[in-house]
């Protein structure tokens, strides 16, 4: 079956297999053999797609984070009159919907972060560095769409956003209380909105 797959399809299938393996058994379980078996591919498939295990883990982080950012971007009500608070709620709700729909994706990232902190600090640094850059990009886009500027530097707000997202993620993974998560989102939206200044027309 894998012989008929394009290189991109093979890469995506292996990344999705890696996410399932990590969510199920942690990072230590994510060997090349386990991942290719999960993807129902021959063991040699791995080395044709990834230069190393570190390359795979980095691509797992990017793939999940790209999905999160896409969900948030699609939630932005372009061309529709909405307050900044409403836009913020919509973006967080879109992330929460993604989390509820496929918890394994986020569980895999939590596993990667904890593994990195314990065994590979450089991996954790890269993971959170990527999170901060993505968060800052999202905040920049929100500012453009909503006609505002942020009172605080981008890196400061980006870190704040990542901390909040981590809290939503780990708490929901622990209790699966979606209603409480949505209530929390609506509680912090004014806090984020208070960091904005309206740009003069």
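Sequence proposed for the structure above (201 residues):
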């Amino acid at each position: 079956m894998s012989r008929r797959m394009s290189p991109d399809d093979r890469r995506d299938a292996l990344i999705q297999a890696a996410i399932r393996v990590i969510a199920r058994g942690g990072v230590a379980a994510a060997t090349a053999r386990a991942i290719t078996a999960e993807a129902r591919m021959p063991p040699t498939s791995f080395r044709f797609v990834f230069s190393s295990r570190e390359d795979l883990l980095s691509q797992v982080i990017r793939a999940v984070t790209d999905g999160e950012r896409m969900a948030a971007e699609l939630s932005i009500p372009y061309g529709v009159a909405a307050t900044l608070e409403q836009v913020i709620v919509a973006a967080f709700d879109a992330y929460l919907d993604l989390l509820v729909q496929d918890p394994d994706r986020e569980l895999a990232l939590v596993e990667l972060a904890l593994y990195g902190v314990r065994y590979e600090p450089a991996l954790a640094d890269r993971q959170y560095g990527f999170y901060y850059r993505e968060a800052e990009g999202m905040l920049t886009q929100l500012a453009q769409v909503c006609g505002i500027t942020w009172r605080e530097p981008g890196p400061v707000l980006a870190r704040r956003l990542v901390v909040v997202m981590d809290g939503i993620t780990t708490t929901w993974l622990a209790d699966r209380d979606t209603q409480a998560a949505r209530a929390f989102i609506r509680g912090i939206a004014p806090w984020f909105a208070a960091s904005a200044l309206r740009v003069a027309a």
